[in-house]
Design goal:
This protein is of the alpha/beta class. 45% of the residues lie in helices and 18% in strands.
Amino acid sequence: MAKAVQTRVTTDEVEHAYEVLKDVVVRTPLQLDTILSERYNCKVYLKREDQQMVRSFKIRGAYYSVHSLTEEQRAKGVVCASAGNHAQGVAFACKKLGIKGKIFMPTTTPRQKVSRVEFFGGKFTEVVLTGDTYDDSYQQAMEVCEKEGMKFIHPFDDRLTITGQATVGLEISEQLQEECSHVFMSIGGGGLISGVGSYLKEKRPHTKLIGVEPFGAPGMKQSLAQNGVVRLNEIDSFVDGAAVKQVGQLPFEMTKDLVNDVVLVPEGKVCTTILNLYNENAIIAEPAGALSIAALDFYRDEIRGKTVVCIVSGGNNDLDRMQEMKERSLIYEGLKHYFIVNFPQRAGALREFMEDVLGETDDITRFEYTKKNNRDKGPVLVGVELRKPDDYFAIIERMEKKGFTYIEINKDKQLFNLLI
């Protein structure tokens, strides 16, 4: 245990980082959210890191790391790999401090994030899009570091980066004037939770730290279960700010003795949360930024009557993705279903389906023949949106009663990805 404590960043280190950052980063508000508080029967405070200049907490660790370079290192320049938010922080630091930088980002990064990196870095940074994931970009960035002797600014597996992120915890501790039972925050590589956790466990030792990962990228969850850093073979990159195949070694060593739990949130639930935050609170959160709030449903009973904090880690959401998010949300909530239905090749079959299978409030959102031939039956791709989740069972019952054979695409991941 003593070794684990020494691994953590100290309060002195965090306070020094804050002195460096206080005139550069925004001291973001800690807001009591009345809508969420009423929904969960507790006090829910939101730490609004989406209100940073780069719309993410990542500016803290990135700027502190770049600022800490020696003159020789500054002269050679820096390299980073990022899915977007860390890249913006490094770009901002490069321009602010007059240092050249090369920034490697996955080709899957939303265009909005790429544009922001180019904006913040200006003439001081070069953006290189490569690979499908953060890990692919990381490999290429490391090759450039070796070849050109530039300093790599790690987004999470670095003590200086972690110390910069820990200043979020310092602000929470100073801003919250009451006891706090839980702090929820997203986990990607682990830099945020290891930094904030280090500080809060010293200042507020009775507060539970809850890490939140997307269901499709459970790197920290699996690493803690196996007591060692695990590399995932495949990940769902939808929650791009928290989708990494491998958490950092240093964050893991810190986190394993700090975190009280790591909860996995399905991507569809994240989408529902994003839409609710936008419609109810006028908050634009990116998928990773909504993770902490999405986790509240899984802690509803435990947090009742208490005070909790959710760190909204980022707000770099590409509005072009909103239709996809709505789709994922509806599917997760059980309100949208896709089927391949075998239709009899005769007049009146469609009318029969509409009148005898669909309920009064069911809506067909997609209908297309997937293959045309002269057989007795032909497969049709049908998308149906429901008013209530329980309406699904009535549709299934009526299809079977009327003799329509079908395949449920929602339950077949490979088929769903192929057709939808």
